[in-house]
Specification:
The protein has 417 residues and is mainly beta. Helices cover 7% and strands 44% of the residues. Strand 15 (196-202) and strand 16 (205-211) form a beta hairpin.
């Protein structure tokens, strides 16, 4: 291996390693907490990235259905999600550790639950600075119920993003390369190699990100990032989907519906697509949307829950630590609830999830040691439609925090060869 190739390989390894060592901050500690939705009010995001003064909305269900008390706290983090040195009064105006007082009990459902909503900012709390935040929700006994990240940005720079096919032929058909440029609206950046930090996200998922990129060159005030290999993501494949908006009848990808103590929805058997040709199928990139057409009323409180049965065909037990059902429905976490188990008599992996009525995207992923292999079962294609975000952080001279000064977006549907 030549010196230049060796340098490129080591550089890419370090860059991508950053994506695998992200601190786990998004947690769900209580199994009775379901259907956590956290998004910008302007759009249905899998994860809220909003302007500093925009509203974000948290929704979740408590399956105990006893109108329990929940309290929320806000903390602030640096660009790499390490704890910030800022005091609370330096990043919020007001008070947190307050009770969530907007809640409603479900109506006419087999599964009783209490639905909670929290809008931020509100009359009790305003945000002072842009950057990375963590919302934690606690029970009345001060136990963590769940936590979710969110990002607030200030519009002080322009971020242009485009998605390209890789130039190296061994990845030409399976990867996507993100190119971008950053232009400040007013003064130029000071020492951008050190003070500018960028984070690249695919489909708003924090389990694998790309960080550590520095500008390749300047074009006036604009910082240009035209990397090929270091800014590549696997293209993956389009997600599987199902729709349980009406639990009285079957729908595409749902073979059978039964009603016992709760509804039960049996999906069609899925087949690994590792060696299949790519086929375009519109999806929402792993997200879900709650909806219910079985009766009038707000789906947040009138939609019911059903046990959804998943099955993945396999004629042998895969040599992995585990096969998991993967999607935004549980914030892309891998745990015992969404782990699949092999049934040798049917030659399938099987799993069951309790999910609220709605339209869901999902895929199957494998885990080998600490290695998440997102596309080992689905295959990876450069033509797959994916959303990309480029988050740009800037630490101004003398400040003690990383301001999120711009956000760029692109979709690989407009892939450039």
């Amino acid at each position: 291996m030549g010196t230049q190739n060796l340098f490129t390989y080591l550089f890419c390894f370090v860059i991508h390693l950053n994506g695998f060592t992200q601190v786990v901050l998004d947690r769900t500690e209580k199994e009775y907490i379901k259907t956590v939705q956290f998004s910008n009010l302007q759009q249905n995001d899998a994860f809220p990235i909003a302007a500093l003064n925009e509203k974000i909305l948290l929704k979740f269900d408590d399956l105990n259905g006893d109108e329990a008390d929940y309290y929320y706290r806000i903390s602030y983090y640096n660009h790499d999600w390490s704890p910030s040195t800022l005091f609370k009064n330096e990043f919020i105006d007001g008070f947190d550790n307050l009770r969530i007082d907007n809640y409603t009990t479900s109506f006419n459902t087999l599964q009783t639950y209490t639905h909670y909503q929290l809008e931020l900012p509100n009359e009790n709390i305003q945000f002072k600075v842009s950057g990375n935040y963590l919302l934690e929700v606690y029970t009345s006994s001060d136990e963590l119920a769940f936590s979710r990240r969110f990002c607030l940005y200030e519009n002080s720079s322009s971020v242009q993003v485009a998605v390209y096919r890789p130039q190296n032929m061994d990845r030409f058909n399976s990867y996507q390369s993100v190119h971008f440029a950053i232009t400040p609206y007013q003064t130029t950046f000071r020492n951008p190699d050190k003070n500018i930090k960028v984070v690249l996200l695919q489909n708003q998922q924090w389990d694998q990100v790309i960080t550590g990129l520095t500008p390749q060159y300047f074009s006036g005030k604009t910082l240009e990032y035209r990397y090929d290999l270091p800014s590549q993501f696997e293209g993956g494949n389009e997600y599987f989907y199902f729709d349980t908006k009406d639990l009285r009848v079957t729908s595409p990808n749902i073979n059978y519906i039964d009603r016992d103590d709760l509804y039960e929805s049996y999906l069609s058997i899925d087949i690994p697509r590792t060696y299949s040709e790519y086929t375009y199928a519109p999806d929402i990139n792993g997200k879900f949307e709650i909806r219910n057409v079985m009766g009038p009323g707000d789906p947040d409180t009138h939609a019911d829950y059903s046990y959804v049965y998943f099955s993945l065909a396999s004629d042998y037990q895969l040599n992995e630590d585990g096969i998991f059902i993967y999607g935004n429905f549980n914030n892309y976490q891998l745990n015992e609830l969404n782990k699949m188990y092999y049934n040798p008599s049917l030659e399938v992996f099987e799993g069951v999830l309790l999910l609220k009525q709605g339209f869901y995207n999902y895929k199957y992923v494998s885990k080998e040691g600490n290695n998440l292999r997102k596309n080992s079962l689905s295959g990876s294609f450069s033509l797959t439609e994916n959303d990309y975000h480029v988050l740009v952080y800037y630490r101004i001279l003398g400040e003690q925090y990383d301001a999120l000064i711009g956000v760029g977006k692109a979709n690989s549907f407009e892939l450039v060869n």
